[in-house]
Design brief:
By secondary structure, this protein is mainly alpha-helical. It has one domain. The protein is built from 8 helices and 2 strands; from the N terminus they run αββααααααα. A two-stranded antiparallel ribbon has the order 1-2. A hairpin with a 2-residue loop joins strand 1 and strand 2. The radius of gyration is 16 Å and the shape is globular.
Length: 156
C-alpha cells in the first residue's frame, strides 16, 4: 500500500496498522531515528509526545498544526529537562542557564531558543487569524526530533 501511495504522490502511509502523514524521506528518517533514540535511552514520555505530534499532522480532514508544534516541542523539552535533571524548568530557561549540560554549541543554542519562542507563540499562545502553515509545523517537528536525537547521542 505504501508503494502505491508513494507512486501516486499521496501524502499518507500505513504505519503499525494506522494511516499517517508521510513527509519527505529526510523528515521520515529524522522522526524514526528520534523515536528509536528516545526509546533506547529510556525516554518513553518524550517519544510519546513525538508520536502525538505526528498524529496531529495526520488528523483528517484537517491536521492539528498547533498541536503538532506543541507536542514536538514538549518532546524536546522533556528530553532537555531529563538531561539537566531539572524537571520543572522550561526549555527556554534550560537553554539560557544550563546550555553546557545540554551540549548544544553556540550559536546553535540560540537557534533552538528561537524555535522554542516560535513554538510558544504559534503553538500555545494562539491568536485569532494567525495560524501556522503545515510546512512550518513540519519544520518544528523535524527540528525537535533531530535535536532530541542529538541530545540522546551527546549525553549517553
Amino acid at each position: 500500500m505504501n508503494e502505491v501511495f508513494g507512486e501516486l504522490g499521496i501524502g499518507w502511509q500505513m504505519v503499525g496498522g494506522e494511516i499517517q502523514t508521510r513527509g519527505t524521506d529526510v523528515f521520515e528518517d529524522s522522526i524514526q531515528k528520534a523515536k528509536t533514540a528516545l526509546l533506547e535511552n529510556g525516554r518513553p514520555t518524550a517519544e510519546s509526545k513525538l508520536r502525538e505530534a505526528i498524529a496531529n499532522l495526520s488528523r483528517r480532514p484537517e491536521p492539528d498544526i498547533t498541536g503538532a508544534i506543541q507536542h514536538s516541542m514538549a518532546a524536546l523539552e522533556c528530553v532537555a529537562r531529563d538531561v539537566c535533571r531539572q524537571p520543572s524548568r522550561t526549555l527556554g530557561d534550560l537553554l539560557q542557564k544550563e546550555g553546557q549540560k545540554l551540549g548544544i554549541p553556540k550559536p546553535l543554542n540560540e537557534a533552538v531558543e528561537k524555535a522554542w519562542g516560535y513554538a510558544s507563540e504559534m503553538g500555545r499562545h494562539v491568536r485569532e487569524g494567525r495560524t501556522p502553515e503545515r510546512a512550518e509545523a513540519e519544520l518544528i517537528v523535524g527540528m525537535c526530533a533531530t535535536i532530541s536525537t542529538y541530545l540522546c547521542q551527546k549525553v549517553f
